[in-house]
Hints:
Blueprint: H1 9-64, E1 67-68, E2 82-85, E3 97-103, E4 109-116, E5 122-127, E6 138-139, E7 152-154, E8 160-164, E9 172-177
Parallel strand pairs: 1-6, 2-3
Antiparallel strand pairs: 3-4, 4-5, 5-9, 7-8
Amino acid sequence: MKNNKGFTLIELIMVTIILGILAAVAAPRMLGTVDSSEEAAELAVVTALRAAVEDYATQMFITDGRYEYPADPFSLVEVTGYVGTGSNVNGLEDGDWWATPENFNGGPEGLLVKHRRKSDEVYAWTYFPNDHSNGDSDDRGVNVGASIDHLKNYDSDGNHDGSYHGPSTRFDGVCVENCD
Length: 180
């Protein structure tokens, strides 16, 4: 009497092939999930910074009669992984946030708010605290990664002429270092 317990070599090879196919399909989806979760976390931090800056401007208007932005948005919100503001921030690790002062191509002074992702890529958002408004009591700048459409120059026919009367540089979650 023959003992037929166990699997044949063909059955084991077929199972290995099926597991390999499943792994090949699942791995990219898993990596995409990590990337999208990092994007969502970044968006939450940037949204919190934007809201805090606008809150600060409103409080300044209530107390001083003028809207204005703070020099550093990180002074308003506690952000996990924030390591500092300045050009000499060193020893950066995955998940760190920092801001560097920038003079955008000889234009207005501002900050480049940066975040290092797990993939070592660095994403950035611009922030201009100085006055970029035409309002009498409005000295607000351009919020973190905010639109610069209100700074466009228009010709006499109302067409955008391609130039700006403020910062023409805007980063809104754009990869600036170690990009693929």
